[in-house]
Amino acid sequence: MPTLAKISVVIVAAVHIAISVVEMFFWNNSFVYQRLDFTPEMASIVTPIVQNAGLYNGFIAAGLIWGAFTKDNVLLLRVFFLVCVVIAGIFGALTLKWTTLVLQTLPAFAALTLVWLSHSQFKLQD
């Protein structure tokens, strides 16, 4: 189970790396912004905000990778960053698109569940 938990954390990190890259470097591609119902004019106006959000998603991915491969405070790091993703996913579903629940929240919640179950007696190290 610990290996499955680690893999699930890495998968969630990979999702956030992809989100980060898209938001930071490909936002102005019509295929991307139209998926969120933005017009070209609106997309242009919010570009700096979206790129900033992409940077934050990169930080979340870095924290998840840190939590996946560290030997110290494993449970604390994994739970913290996965809970951040779950909360952000719920907020995104409420404010952007419901598909955020499927793409962001559900994988993070599944990973959080596996992480929690893999740490019997709530030990703090693998």
Quick gist of this model?
Keywords: Membrane, Plasmid, Transmembrane, Transmembrane helix. By secondary structure, the chain is mainly alpha-helical.
Task: Walk me through what this model shows.
The chain has 126 residues and is mainly α. The chain has one domain (2-122). 80% of the residues lie in helices and 0% in strands. The protein has five helices and no strands. It has helices at 2-25, 30-34, 40-69, 74-95, 99-118. It starts with a helix and ends in an 8-residue tail after the last helix. The mean pLDDT is 93.
Q: Return Rg in Å.
A: 16 Å
In terms of structural class, how would the helical and strand content be classed?
mainly alpha
What's the average pLDDT?
Answer: 93
Spans with pLDDT under 50 lasting ≥5 residues? Answer: none
How far apart, in Å, are the first and last alpha carbons? 11 Å
The major sheet is characterized as: none
Shape: elongated
What's the helical proportion of residues?
over 70%
Question: Total domains, how many?
Answer: 1
SS summary, helix count: 5
The secondary-structure element order is HHHHH
